[in-house]
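User: My collaborator sent over this chain with a note saying "see what the structure looks like." That's all I know about it. Can you take a look?
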Amino acid sequence: MSGLVTLTTDFGLTDEYVGIMKGVILSLAPTTQIVDLSHEIEPQNIAQAAYLINSSRQYFPDNTIHILVVDPGVGSNRRMILVGARRQLFLAPDNGVLSLVFDDNELDFAHAITNEELYLHPVSQTFHGRDILAPVAAHLAKGLAVETVGPPLDSKELKQLNLAASISTDGKSIIGRVIQIDRFGNLITNIHRHDLQKLTASSTGSTLTVTVGTSTINNLVAYYAEATPGELLALFGSRDYLEIAINKGNAGKYLGINTGKIVELKNDKKVTLHATL
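Assistant: Without extra context I'll predict from the sequence alone. Here is the result:
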């Protein structure tokens, strides 16, 4: 293993939860490097966490261990799982948060985490990140064989969520939604740059028009400062997903849009985006 562990949670940083998970890992594997991906996932927002880890994992070395704790079902009978995919390891509840990691069948292996000898005891019913995922990650970082954590699982046994944007029946529009509002107020959708290729008519040479509520954006820009300060804009950001933003402003507050809102990317004579408020 690389000895590198990442943490992604919806815990925030006000409470002690993140620090305790790090303490558990370092107590068992003192030389482990720990990277905080994010602890500001919206509470219980599985889709947001799924997109974040899938957009981040490619920038880490092989054998990195990723822990994801966004777990609305903590304490229930949902499983904790270890997944090996894309030459990395992922530890998470089996609630669909890993759906994008292996949605193209790039799954090397999966195991249910059931070996209680690896847990902290007693196991809290409300903090499995501390008592199960953190110690298991530490043991893996020290070289524990993956099959030791528990029995193997078939990919068909794992919970999968349909998180991708979808094509309409007439092939003229793509239906997506706002997945995340970042700290700048940019609305990040699940409409990927590649989704443009799914439309029946090519957008090559077209003027792209983006409509958000009562506001209209006449073209996509390549970068934020290409728009004038205060101007509403749309672009494909660093994740290659469509974003709606305001140069030096907060689009989320301006438009009053929350995560989960429906977005339609439509191709008539022009490609038009409609965000339902």
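A starting point for your reply to your collaborator: The mean pLDDT is 88.
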